[in-house]
Design goal:
By secondary structure, the protein is mainly α. The chain has a single domain, classed as 3-Layer(aba) Sandwich (Rossmann fold), CATH 3.40.50. It has three helices and two strands, in the order αβαβα.
Amino acid sequence: MCVESDVTETVEEARQWMGGVDVLVNAAGINKDTLLIKTSEDLISDQLNTNLVGTIFTCKAALRHMVKQRKGCIINIGEPIACIARTKCAHWSMPLDANMQLALFCRQRCGK
């Protein structure tokens, strides 16, 4: 879910099929438990795309409909350990912490 046009199309198909977008649950995530200094560029890109970019795109696509409907709920699921600074998995925990900030932003700007 890291290609924005694919995400937008998927959310639109779901909206048409179900008659609206009331709830979005973002629960996708990947982690390879490796030291940051041994982590490949491809793995970092995969983790950022899955754990952060995909969440941003799904929130953006769902919010378009939720704002028009004047209702909706977004649930971003992550691991609480992401809030703890971890030198071994900084590349994994940073996107999860960013997702928490994204959820707060969406609530402040679009929520009640």
